[in-house]
Specification:
By secondary structure, the protein is an alpha+beta fold. It has 3 domains: 125 residues, Roll (Nuclear Transport Factor 2, Chain: A), CATH 3.10.450.100; 96 residues, Penicillin-binding protein 2a (Domain 2); 316 residues, Beta-lactamase, CATH 3.40.710. The protein has 17 helices and 24 strands. Helix 8 runs antiparallel to helix 17, helix 9 packs across helix 16 and helix 11 packs across helix 14. It is elongated, with a radius of gyration of 39 Å.
Length: 585
């Protein structure tokens, strides 16, 4: 081929190929660029995803080689954990990264990430963190752990400031426990509220979790313990940056916040009357609203020390007997001193003759009627009705989570009771049967409320009240029959000392004999020694009931522990005194 033609052909080929070559080179260059950008984006995206899941190991994997040489994985993790602890945070929230331009170093890109520490103390503390990302990963430094930190700074929280403890109030707003000294105008009448003191080991750990100082006083018992966390309030604190030019640059702040007061169902006048009537005697008093079951007064060991309830338990036995049609109000029983019940001889109190109609037998508390009735009812039915009344279950003072803190003992009886002798003894409130004044007041409330047992709440806040729903124990007809018998106790029976002229009272006495006997007193000078066989029987004395009889408003129970007097002699007059403070003599 002619040289000129060859040169022309080469020129044409080169001219045609050059654009294609340029496009290929450009595509190659763009591919390199896009590949690099994709790598950076993936690195920061993986880092942010790992932040959201709290996976420090996955976060560390996205760091550049230079950053990994400066911080080991354990050091990296400790920085985040320490920061979260200082902030009082259990989680970090993050939004998707946004490209924010070139890093001043020139060989990395900046990505903005909105980070927030979800803090129990300060709420959501958030801001933007700019992460430099190179082709081999994130160029991480310690100040990038938290928004707004500068190089050399770290997060620090000031010691917590404990707020004043929340108040505990009566239903009308009267203070039952107020201020640091937990003062009340009711004075010693508020013992059931409980006490506060220095935190034990477990409580101290909980204080730390709440961000409160270790020397914060906590609830030791009673309502102070049950609602301790609700009464502690929110601590005040400051979160600041430490180590920079400004030694305490504030990042977040919260004022100490006093807890809202807890309002109880307690009536201050009834509370004072109950405590005054009980005096210095060992025992307990519980007064309830006859309709709602709400506690109006608590004195002494009202729900903390179950004792044998004696014949007040006959409220349960009578209910079971009537409901199971084992007895009727008009049934007649022989007047005897003792009888056989399940193979054991059972005597009446003081070996007195007792009997007549079922109403009279209840009014005079005839063991010779009720022990055999218990055997006829049977252990299964007797336990069933007792548990309907609330035996073998925790008292319904407040919600279960708060009951767990104070763990009050249940009123109880064996389940099952198979031995006929034990059934007979249990039917008269002896043997292994144990009850508190709160439980027997609840039994009286059930009868007063047409057979419906209500929870015995002591607080008004719905969030704190018992989860127990009102439950039907028996029919209104059976409850009315038991009420007739309880009224007879006060009119003509063993509980006449509880009677008032102002309103009709219904009730049931109880006297539970204990194993111990009390030695006779020392003789006066010059008198002969007393006969040791005259030792007096030690016993628990009870009276439970409600008033007014026709339109019940209050249900109550009184217990005196280890006395020599019967329930009608010592417990019924205490009930009289409490009711007289409301209705007059």
């Amino acid at each position: 081929m002619h040289p000129d033609r060859l040169a022309q052909r080469k020129h044409r080929l080169l001219t045609r190929a050059l654009p294609v070559l340029l496009i290929a080179l450009t595509a190659f260059a763009v591919g390199i660029f896009l590949g690099r950008s994709s790598s950076e984006e993936k690195s920061i995206e993986r880092f942010v995803d790992a932040i959201k899941s709290g996976d420090y190991g996955a976060m560390y994997e996205q760091l550049s080689a230079d950053s990994k040489s400066q911080y080991s994985e354990s050091e990296f993790e400790k920085i985040y954990e320490k920061t979260a602890k200082e902030a009082g945070s259990t989680s970090i929230v993050a939004e998707s990264p946004l490209e924010a331009g070139a890093d001043p170093s020139g060989d990395a890109k900046l990505y903005e990430v909105k980070l927030g520490y979800d803090s129990d103390y300060f709420g959501l503390i958030g801001g933007t963190v700019e992460f430099p990302v190179a082709s081999d990963g994130i160029r991480w430094e310690a100040h990038l752990v938290f928004p707004t930190l500068k190089p050399g700074e770290k997060v620090k929280r000031s010691p917590a400031i404990a707020p004043p403890r929340g108040d505990i109030l009566a239903s009308d707003g009267t203070a039952l426990a107020k201020g640091p000294a937990r003062e009340s105008p009711l004075g010693d009448a508020t013992a059931f509220v409980g006490t506060i003191g220095a935190a034990g080991e477990d409580a101290a750990k909980h204080l730390e979790e709440l961000g409160l100082p270790a020397d914060t006083l906590v609830g030791i018992d009673g309502l102070e313990l049950a609602f301790d966390e609700q009464l502690l309030g929110n601590p005040g604190s400051t979160l600041y940056a430490e180590g920079g030019d400004d030694p305490r640059r504030v990042l977040a702040e919260r004022e100490a916040e006093t807890a809202k007061p807890i309002k109880t169902t307690i009536d201050p006048d009834l509370q004072t009357a109950a405590v005054t009537a009980l005096g210095d005697q060992l025992g307990g008093v519980a007064v309830l609203d006859a309709k709602t079951g709400d506690i109006r007064a608590l004195a002494g060991i009202a729900f903390s020390a179950p004792q044998p309830p004696g014949s007040t338990f006959k409220i349960v036995t009578a209910t079971a007997g009537l409901a199971e049609r084992k007895v009727a109000l008009t049934d007649e029983f022989p007047v005897v001193v003792s009888t056989d019940a399940g193979g054991r001889s059972i005597s009446n109190a003081h070996d007195e003759p007792c009997g007549g109609s079922f109403v009279e037998s209840f009014a005079h508390s005839c063991n010779t009627v009720f022990a055999p009735l218990g055997v006829e009812i049977g252990g299964g039915h007797l336990v069933d009705y007792a548990e309907r009344f609330g035996f073998n279950a925790k008292p319904t003072l407040y919600a279960d989570e708060f009951l767990k803190r104070t763990d009050p003992p249940p009123s109880s009886l064996p389940n099952p009771i198979n031995d006929p002798v034990e059934v007979g003894v249990s039917a008269i409130g002896q043997g292994a049967v144990l009850a508190t004044p709160l439980e027997m007041a609840s039994a009286a409330q059930t009868i007063a409320n047409q057979g419906v047992r209500a929870p015995t709440n002591v607080v008004k806040d719905e969030a704190l009240r018992s989860d127990f729903e009102p439950t039907t124990v028996t029919t209104p007809e059976v409850a009315a029959d038991v009420g007739v018998m309880m009224r007879a106790v006060v009119v003509e029976g063993t509980g006449q000392a509880a009677a008032l002229e102002s309103v009709d009272v219904a009730g049931k006495t109880g006297t539970a004999e204990l194993e111990q006997k009390i030695d006779p007193p020392e003789p006066a000078p010059g008198e002969p020694p007393l006969d040791p066989t005259e030792n007096q029987q030690e016993q628990d004395a009870w009276f439970a009931g409600y008033a007014p009889y026709r339109e019940p408003e209050l249900a109550f129970a009184v217990m005196i522990v280890r006395t020599t007097d019967d329930g009608g002699v010592i417990a019924a007059p205490i009930a009289h005194s409490i009711l007289a403070s409301v209705y007059g003599q």
